[in-house]
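User: I'm writing a tutorial on reading structure tokens. Could you give me a worked example: one chain, its sequence, then its tokens, then a sentence or two explaining what the tokens reveal?
Assistant: Sure. Here is the example chain.
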Amino acid sequence: MLILGFMVVEVIGGVLSGSLALLSDAGHMITDGAAIALALFAQHMANRPASAERTFGYQRAEVLAALINALSLWMIAGWIFFEAFRRLRDVPEIEGGLMLVIGVIGLLVNLAAAWVLHRSAQHSLNVEGALKHVMADLMGSVGVVISGVLVLTTGWTLVDPILSVLIGVLILASSWRLTIKVFRVLLDTVPEHIDVYRLCSELEEQEGVTLVHDVHVWTISSGHESFTAHILVDPAYEGDMNELLSSSQEIVRHDHGVGHVTIQLEQLRVGADCAEDHHVDHLLARSREQRKKRKRLLL
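And here are its predicted structure tokens:
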């Protein structure tokens, strides 16, 4: 409500003052409101229970919302660049005083919105996407304030499209990390905080374990990671298989923070009755750092 209410003020102020920075900021505020509405809807969908046809429920809805938010930021930056180039060729008259007043109010509104969102942004890609929109808008408000001061004190109206370009660059930079995070989830990449080499090494250090293979680690949605693997057990192992399974799950779940763990124990020759991909490149390194050092040496 803060954002959409002030967006109306910025549209009126942008038309009256002739400021591209204000109008671009107003256009971005529309997407801010849409981003937060999308985040709320995705959160509602993610909380819906799983079913036989959707075994993970709608948890990926928040990732899709974050992707839409990231792509919309790039589209906004493109529009700002286009309008700024057009105004660099034909700079209009700008009312600096009105621009400055609205810019200061917008700065306060965006600070309030950012404060509301930042507390949960680190736990959700969805909320982080909405926060990126608000932070980009915050940078836009700073640009509006600077433009208003310079136009009011020096009469240099060219600063408006120049600062608009800088705002566009900052929007692209701020959305880049979010975009990378979203694509990592959609490509089922191993989460950054999980060292799969160390994890597999710790599993293999257990008594009776010969090899960990067919390993898969991925993110379903923010804070919901999954792990599946086959553990080859020495046929001569005389210990309790249930205890071995429990200790393996404990390593994955509690030591490495993975919530959804599926482990299959096997007492057979590796590959004898198993059709899955046995990728075991973790045997070449005991940690992610060792893996990186090995790759540098090979290069």
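What the tokens reveal: The first strand starts at residue 209 and ends at 221. DSSP finds nine helices and three strands in the chain.
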